[in-house]
Amino acid sequence: MLRSRLWEPSGIGRSPDVLVIVGVTTLLVYGLLRVLWPGVGSPAGTATALLGLIAVLAWGKGIRGTAPLWLLLLSVAVQVLSWGLGYLHHPEWVSSNPEVDRLAKLFIFIGVAWWLGGSSRNTLLIWGLAVIGYLVASFVAGGLEEWRKGLEGMRTGFGIRNKQHGSMLFGVALLGLAIFARRIMTSGTRWVPWRCVAWGLALGICVVGIAIGQTRAVWLALAVSLPVAVLIVLLWARSRGLGQRVLRPVLGGIGVGLVLVVLGGVFFGGTLSERLETESGVVAELLQGDLEAVPYSSIGIRIHTWVAAGEWIAERPLVGWGGEGRGLVIDHTDWLPDDIKERFGHLHNFFLEVWVAYGLLGLGVIAALAFWIGRGTWLAWRAGVIPNDMALFGAAFFVYWMIVNQFESYNSFWTGVYVHNLIVGGLVTHIWRWQLESGQRVLAWPTRRST
Fold first, then answer.
1. What backbone torsions phi and psi does residue 190 show, to the nearest 5 degrees?
2. Start and end of every O-antigen ligase-related domain (predicted)?
């Protein structure tokens, strides 16, 4: 087995030592370099997924029969079905093959979860490497020039796909830094000065990155997910009679947050207010219900393309239009302006894209996966398998991810796939460990009582 002080051996299944070494190495490279060095990180991610899936199928006794594997198979079936029916109904608009990777890539977490081996230490290491890799990449990919422009008031994307995707990654990093703050800055019960400085520096970079990235969906997602995390902590503390003990660090965290908000207002107030006020006219038109009068601004484009998507969904709500569905909406909706058709090829909403492409069957696969992960995380946390802060991060991330994917199709692009699979993989590896240790299942039919 692969052993070191940093990487714990697997607690969910054993595969050959050589395979473990290769699998763990590819996972480490994927976590650290997917954003920083895509030419290396991307193939490493593919190797992580393929080797992990092979290992689960070959040596994952008690795991290969769980919901993620069945849902992966079902996602492939749904995509093939949608493609096949589309080929019969509109052959000129379907691709030459089913393109099953559109949903299947969201199941890369199966390989990630296997190599993490049910270990919290391994999971936190991978998540930490991902944050470090992205923070470095934000200075390397876009260069210091991007930061300079951003500090001068220009919207910047740090060289990561586009401006929204860079902001999204900073938002995830900030969420993790906030929730794991105590774990990062302390060793046992002792505060470690250099860790505190590193945490403060990383947090500051994320706050500035989010401000100059000027992505309103990320601001909204953080404005909701962070208070939700605080509320969960307070409810948990109250249920265990730990109110006074927990109140001080919570108030300290709120204080830090307020200070950051004030500083953001001082240094970026003009930029932030301008960004927020830009779409006030669009919001007014929406409140009046006059969709035709909505201009084709940032939010307006989303509204109009969502309305167009609704028209296509109404025609094939169950199975959708196939993998090219989002492009069909943009290209073949007559009333959308030509410049919009030239500039955009997606709907800025992941869930609408899945619905258009694969119908309610596709949405059902995504919803079933989310439910299984949510319930599994809850059960593993109650059993003490998932640490408190990790379970809290999982809940807060779910809120954050649901919101940002309403306004941009992150899960349709490599940035979102990367985030999704690393975080979901970290949660699922604990769920599998809980299942193996307890002999229970996340979803099980209730047993009949003997009479």
1. -105, 130
2. 202-365
